Amino acid sequence: MSRLFWLNDEQWSRIEPLLPHYGSPPRVDDRRILSGIVHVLRCGSRWCDCPAEYGPYTTVYNRFNRWSRKGIWQSIYAALTGDGRTHRQLLADSTHIKAHRSAAGAEKGEQCQAIGRSRGG
């Protein structure tokens, strides 16, 4: 089973009209490149590790980067979700990390001795 992400027909039909249509010659690989962008963002890999099935990783990265600077991703997000907030108000990931108190970087043994003293030990 392939672990690659591909935009299905319904997703593509909603996104395609939102894409910029300028330049010559027209781009013919938008669906493949956008699928590659979503794949990299979903799995959290580096751009250079983007599978070759999506095309050259430099094209995938350059398209993502260029459209980010032009605000195209915010327009796509707003159109697909019906959310007209500005990009400063959007929050895509609300997770947080809790670290154990021993993860503070103390020397080995210091933490245990300090805890023992605070407990009267």
Mean pLDDT: 77
SSE run: HHHHH
Question: Given the helix and strand composition, which structural class is it?
Answer: mainly alpha
Supply Rg. 22 Å
The beta-strand count equals 0
What percent of the residues sit in helical stretches (DSSP H or I)? 40-55%
Shape: extended
Total helical elements: 5
N/C terminus separation = 57 Å
Q: Largest sheet at a glance?
A: none
Low-confidence stretches at least 5 residues in length (pLDDT < 50)? none
Beta-strand residue fraction = under 5%
Protein name: Transposase
InterPro entries: IS402-like_dom, Transposase_6_like
Pfam family, one: DUF4096
Region (Disordered): 101-121
Could you characterize the architecture of this molecule?
The radius of gyration is 22 Å and the shape is extended. The chain has a domain of 75 residues. The chain contains 5 helices and no strands. Helices cover 44% and strands 0% of the residues. Helix 2 crosses helix 3. With 121 residues, it is mainly α. The N and C termini lie far apart (57 Å). InterPro entries: IS402-like_dom, Transposase_6_like. This is Transposase. Pfam families: DUF4096 (PF13340). It comes from Chelatococcus asaccharovorans.
Overview features:
121 residues; mainly alpha; extended
